[in-house]
Structures are given as structure tokens and as C-alpha cells.
UniProtKB/TrEMBL annotation:
Belongs to the WD repeat GAD-1 family. It comes from the Eukaryota. WD repeats lie at residues 179-211, 280-322, 385-409. Keywords: Repeat, WD repeat. This is WD repeat-containing protein 70. Residues 105-117, 148-166 have a biased composition (Acidic residues). Residues 45-78, 126-136, 541-566 have a biased composition (Basic and acidic residues). InterPro entries: WD40/YVTN_repeat-like_dom_sf (IPR015943), WD40_PAC1 (IPR020472), WD40_repeat_dom_sf (IPR036322), WD40_rpt (IPR001680), WD_repeat_GAD-1 (IPR051858). Residues 1-27, 43-171, 537-631 are annotated as: Disordered.
Length: 631
């Protein structure tokens, strides 16, 4: 049996190449070819349409400018000829409008009857608003701004570039407040991530809490405590969640306290008699500094004089998590003076007393990932290392009065180095600005030899672009909070200063400067009122108040009130030549006399004859009974 071949179907109602198949399937559109589109042609047509619309928009704007110029000329003519009527103006406007419409019709490829002006000319108000007609003609997004708009954008771009080129304008130093911590050096500063509370620590062993929202213009701390007893505070830092504070002091045990100052945990002390520090459970010597992990809650790091850097967990205070042991090129121990985490928490950097900077992977404690041997002068304490916000640059503040920048991707030489920055404290800080364009550090001065400064360097060129004179003492700590955009400074004379700008800064010090100082409450003294009742019965009558002198005389006559206290019991004061104790001690113990006599005490000096009180006692023939004296 032969199958019918595909027959050609012509016409608009064709069901496909096989009519029986269409009948079988139940619909007539089966077998049609898919419609094809030429995308390049469509894009080209769209581009031409956009160019044509932009050209029409430009021409319309040019016509609008011409109309405005003609109107200005007419106004000038009207001022010159006040007698002229407004009909000519209307007629001229109608002529210009008809001229414009005729020119637009000639430009269009296909005109319509709707575009022709029919009837009287348009009023002046509609002529002054040609933008409405333009908006009706244009479909889709508007073309880029031209002429004046473009010039304005260029001016804005120039202004933005000037601001980007001059980061000094972003420094918030127009206003300042001073917080009185004490009389000794403020050696530690900490600010919580939200910027609500500031904590300061110093050489006076005190840690003080400052609440910006709760303070008034008196600037007083709401809490002061000594968490480490008689050890100087070296570092204070809030955790990434802001609920705990790491306290590092001169002892070998770091502490963690909560926001209110209560102790959360204390690290265990290691065994001093074990040679390998990796086998001890904690530090065995004085701490230098500490830092919280930026991502993991409850993990922090400390470095110590026992030549180790240890990581800890708050949940396990009985043993450290891991131990990093810095070594010299010869494999000898070297003491780390400062340490920090990278911004992502994967790297641990430490600066050592031999001038080297060593960087480890957080999970590999054996060999450092980067090691630069002569970053600073050997024998000087590098006081600070910190990472930039992008995580690629490391800044180090050396004890050799220098500040250096390092690229950890090419850790073979410093990018920049600045000298002439004296430092006399082992915890002098350096930090980056929130936009990563400036590097900030402080300088130290001798007492009475000038003022300490806060120095700003541009990160890209490392030029000294700005300075702030802080006070007539050294600048020890500096902290630039990214959320508040405020700079906190700790000085050598016990002051903590906060620099801010009302327009550039947020909250923080701005909350407390607007509050007036509370008035001091006057001390209320309670005095007993004396009620005079002259006609009361004697049993209800209160005694009359008398002078103090008479009362003292009366108390002197009272044997109970004027009783002389008993003198303290005196010890042995004199040993006679005979070897016997003095009368005061001997009178307290019984002595055995000659045989047959009962126990009797040693005679007191008053019982002796008068002529024998000042003579030596003759040694008796009897001896003291040791059993009785022992009793």
C-alpha cells in the first residue's frame, strides 16, 4: 500500500505539509515553520531609530533656544517701544510656530494630518513649555545630556576627582573632647563595633568605661575597676560582637571581661620549668599585646616574653588552641613584641625583637608563610603591626622611629618608609583610615620639650600630608573608628581625646556634647529636732541640751565611760645575770620551791624589800619545774 506523499499546500489557510496529520492531531497549525528573526537587522534598525530621535531632540532644543532668543529680543523692543501692541507679538509667535511645524513636517519621512496646525495659534503659555511636546514624541530612554547638562556633569566629576585626590578633607578634626582617665599614661584604648562605649586603660592599673549616650558635658566615666590588680594595662580590645573585652596586662595571664566589667575567663599560666613552650598550657612570662579574631566569635591571640604567640578560645580557658614559635634564621628563640590577625582572619602576623616580621597561616603553626628578617633595626621593639582594610598592605610601627608599608603579595622589600617619628612607648599605635587612603601614627616627646603629634601619611605616595598637635605629652594610642568616623587618642599625661566633625562624623562624641552638665546634688544633713514641752510630765520631758564642755566633765566622772583601756601584754624585756627572766614574765608562771612546799608564784617587785629591788637576784638553790612551766 502506497502512502500519500507530502503535497504542497498554498494559501493562508494551509494546515501543513500533511493534511491528514493535521486532521489526526486535531489542530490546523501543526507543521508550520518557526518564524525567524534577524537580530542584527533589528539592532541596526533600533540604533537608527535612536539616532533619529536624538537628532530630532537636538533640533527641538535648538529651536527652543532660538525661540527664547527671539522672545528676549521682543521684550527688549517692547521696552523701547511701549506703545506697541501685543497683537504683533502673538502674530510673530504664530508665524514662528507655523514655521517650526512646517520645517518639522519636511524633515519627517511620512507626515500625518494630526501634526498640521489647524485653528488659531497656540497661546504663549504653551509656547513656553515645548518640553511637553518633546516628551510626547520621544519613546524610550532619553539620550545622554548635552551642552549645559554635560558641562554640569563635567564640573561634578572634577569636584569628585578633587575630593578623591585630597583625602585630608575627610579628616574629622574640627572639634574635640577630652576625657580625664588619670595622671599616668593611657596605654590602651578600645571601642566597641557599634561605637557606643569606649574603654581606656593605663599605667595606673585602672580600666574605665565611657558611655557616649549616657555621658553629659562633664565627661565622666560610669565605671572604673582594676581587673589585673597591680599590673599595667597594655591592650584593650572589644570582640567582633561587642559583648566581651580582651584585657592584656603585664602579667602572664590574659583576661576576658564582659561589657559591664565582670570576669568571663582567665587564661591559665604555663609551667616555667618546661623547656619546650609548645608543651605548656599557657604563657609563662609577661604579655605584650592581644587581638580578637575578626570572624570567629570567642577566639583571640596573645604574645608574650616566653617567645610564643598563642591562640585561645573563651570556652576553653584551661589550655591554648595553638602555639606559634618565632625563630631567627639560625633557629633560635626570639621574643614577639606585637601580633595581629589579617582582616579575613586567615593570617597571623608578629613582629619580633630582632627586627623581623613573620606571618603564619592560621592553621599551619610550623613554618611562617612570609618572613622578612630586617624589617626594623634589631634590638628595638616594634610596637604595632596592622593590616589595611583591603587586606593587601601591612603597616609596621618600629621602635627605630620609622613607619613602613609592606605588600604581603611581594614581601621582599617595603613599599614605603618614613623616618623621624620618635617613639618611647612599646605600644605606640598606627592605623588606616576607613577609606584606606591614609595611615595615621603618633609621636613621642620628652616632658617639657614640645607637643606630641598625630601624623597622617597618604598611602599611595606616603607623603606627610597633615599633622595635629594633641597635647604637651606623647601620643601613645590612636584609633580611627570606621562607623563613627571619629579619632580616639591616648596620651602620656593621662588624657583620652576624641576628635570629630559635626558634618562628617556620626553619633559618638556628638551625643554627649549637646547634653548640659547635671547640677551637683547638695548634701542633705539630718538634724534631730528638739521639741520644748515645758508643761509635760517629768517622765515625758526631754532633757535640756547642755554645752559640750559640761557633758565631757560629766562623762569623765562616769567610771564606765572614762575607763582606761588595759595596756598590751609586754614581752620579755630584761634577762638578769642569773639567767632568770624579769619579774613581769616570771610572775605569770608558777615555780616549785624547796621540797615540801606548795607551788607559789614568783614574787613581784613590790613584794621584795626596798633595798633589794635594785640589786641582783641571788641564784636560789631550787630550780623551776619544767613540767609545770610547760603546762
Amino acid at each position: 500500500m502506497e502512502r500519500p506523499g507530502p503535497s504542497e499546500v498554498t494559501g493562508s489557510d494551509a494546515s501543513g505539509p500533511d493534511p491528514q496529520l493535521a486532521v489526526t492531531m486535531g489542530f490546523t497549525g501543526f507543521g508550520k515553520k518557526a518564524r525567524t528573526f534577524d537580530l542584527e537587522a533589528m539592532f541596526e534598525q533600533t540604533r537608527r531609530t535612536a539616532v533619529e530621535r536624538s537628532r530630532k531632540t537636538l533640533e527641538a532644543r535648538e529651536k527652543e533656544e532660538e525661540m527664547n532668543r527671539e522672545k528676549e529680543l521682543r521684550r527688549q523692543n517692547e521696552d523701547i517701544e511701549p506703545t506697541s501692541s501685543g497683537s504683533n507679538v502673538v502674530r510673530d509667535c504664530s508665524k514662528s510656530s507655523s514655521r517650526d511645524t512646517s520645517s518639522s513636517e519636511s524633515e519627517e519621512s511620512s507626515g500625518s494630518s494630526d501634526d498640521e496646525l489647524i485653528g488659531p495659534p497656540l497661546p504663549l503659555k504653551m509656547m513656553k513649555e515645548p518640553g511637553n511636546h518633546i516628551e510626547e514624541d520621544i519613546v524610550g530612554p532619553l539620550p545622554p545630556p548635552l551642552y549645559e547638562d554635560a558641562e554640569d556633569d563635567d564640573d561634578d566629576d572634577d569636584g569628585d576627582s578633587e575630593e578623591e585626590e585630597n583625602p585630608v578633607q575627610k579628616i574629622p578634626d574640627s572639634h574635640e573632647i577630652t576625657l580625664k582617665h588619670g595622671t599616668k599614661t593611657v596605654s590602651a584604648l578600645g571601642l566597641d563595633p557599634s561605637g557606643a562605649r569606649l574603654v581606656t586603660g593605663g599605667y595606673d592599673y585602672d580600666v574605665k568605661f565611657w558611655d557616649f549616650a549616657g555621658m553629659d558635658a562633664s565627661f565622666k566615666a560610669f565605671r572604673s575597676l582594676q581587673p589585673c590588680e597591680c599590673h599595667q594595662i597594655k591592650s584593650l580590645q572589644y570582640s567582633n560582637t561587642g559583648d566581651m573585652i580582651l584585657v592584656v596586662s603585664g602579667s602572664s595571664q590574659a583576661k576576658v571581661i564582659d561589657r559591664d566589667g565582670f570576669e568571663v575567663m582567665e587564661c591559665i599560666k604555663g609551667d616555667q620549668y618546661i623547656v619546650d613552650m609548645a608543651n605548656t598550657k599557657g604563657h609563662t612570662a609577661m604579655l605584650h599585646t592581644g587581638s580578637w579574631h575578626p570572624k570567629i566569635k570567642g577566639e583571640f591571640m596573645t604574645c608574650s616574653n616566653d617567645a610564643t604567640v598563642r591562640t585561645w578560645e573563651v570556652e576553653n580557658p584551661r589550655k591554648q588552641r595553638s602555639v606559634f614559635k618565632p625563630r631567627t634564621a639560625q633557629g633560635k628563640k626570639v621574643i614577639p613584641t606585637t601580633c595581629t590577625y589579617s582582616r579575613d582572619g586567615n593570617l597571623i602576623a608578629a613582629a619580633c625583637q630582632n627586627g623581623s616580621i613573620q606571618i603564619w597561616d592560621r592553621n599551619l603553626t610550623v613554618h611562617p608563610k612570609f618572613h622578612y628578617k630586617q624589617a626594623h633595626d634589631p634590638g628595638t621593639d616594634t610596637s604595632c603591626v596592622t593590616f589595611s582594610y583591603d587586606g593587601n598592605v601591612l603597616a609596621s610601627r618600629g621602635g627605630d622611629d620609622t613607619l613602613k608599608l609592606w605588600d604581603i603579595r611581594q614581601f621582599n622589600k617595603p613599599l614605603f618608609s618614613a623616618s623621624g617619628l620618635p617613639t618611647m612607648f612599646p605600644m605606640t599605635d598606627c592605623c588606616f583610615s576607613p577609606d584606606d587612603k591614609l595611615v595615621v601614627t603618633g609621636t613621642s616627646v620628652q616632658r617639657g620639650c614640645g607637643s606630641g603629634k598625630l601624623v597622617f601619611f597618604e598611602r599611595r605616595t606616603f607623603q606627610r600630608v597633615y599633622e595635629i598637635d594633641i597635647t604637651d605629652a606623647s601620643v601613645v594610642r590612636c584609633l580611627w573608628h570606621p562607623k563613627l568616623n571619629q579619632i580616639m587618642v591616648g596620651t602620656g599625661n593621662g588624657l583620652a581625646k576624641v576628635y570629630y566633625d559635626p558634618n562628617k562624623s556620626q553619633r559618638g562624641a556628638k551625643l554627649c556634647v549637646v547634653k548640659t552638665q547635671r547640677k551637683a546634688k547638695q548634701a542633705e544633713t539630718l538634724t534631730q529636732d528638739y521639741i520644748i514641752t515645758p508643761h509635760a510630765l517629768p517622765m515625758f520631758r526631754e532633757p535640756r541640751q547642755r554645752s559640750t564642755r559640761k557633758q565631757l566633765e560629766k562623762d569623765r566622772l562616769d567610771p564606765l565611760k572614762s575607763h582606761k583601756p588595759e595596756p598590751p601584754v609586754a614581752g620579755p624585756e630584761l634577762v638578769l645575770e642569773t639567767g632568770l627572766p624579769c619579774f613581769e614574765e616570771a610572775s605569770a608562771a608558777p615555780w616549785r620551791g624547796p621540797p615540801g612546799e606548795e607551788l607559789r608564784p614568783w614574787p613581784s617587785p613590790t613584794e621584795l624589800p626596798a633595798d633589794s629591788q635594785h640589786q641582783h637576784v641571788v641564784e636560789p638553790s631550787w630550780e623551776a619545774d619544767p613540767s609545770v612551766s610547760a603546762q
